[in-house]
Amino acid sequence: MESRIEILSTVTIENSDDLYKIVDTLNRTLKKENLMFGLALDQEDKSKAVFSIYRT
Fold first, then answer.
1. Which end of the chain is less packed: N or C, by CB atoms within 10 Å?
2. Rounded to whole angstroms, how far apart are CA atoms 23 and 19?
3. 1 part of a folded domain
4. Residue 37 CB-density burial (10 A; 0-12 exposed, 13-18 middle, 19+ buried)
């Protein structure tokens, strides 16, 4: 069986030390709704973070 992940939204925001806490809480809370959240450091501007919402 193949697992497909759909990107629903991506936004670039100011990086903050506590952003991972929000992403972790969203992932724990909304996992049963087939939603997944991601956070990555922007490759071009290290002061920015890329926040993404996925549907699994």
1. N
2. 7
3. no
4. buried
Provide the domain count of the chain: 1
* Rounded Cα–Cα distance for residues 47 and 26 (Å): 22
The Cα 34–Cα 53 span in angstroms is: 11
Which domain, by its residues, includes 14?
6-55
* Residues pairing with 48 in the sheet: 14
Over residues 1-56, the pLDDT tens digits come to 667 999 999 999 999 999 999 999 999 999 999 999 999 999 999 999 999 999 99
Residue 45 lies in a domain: yes
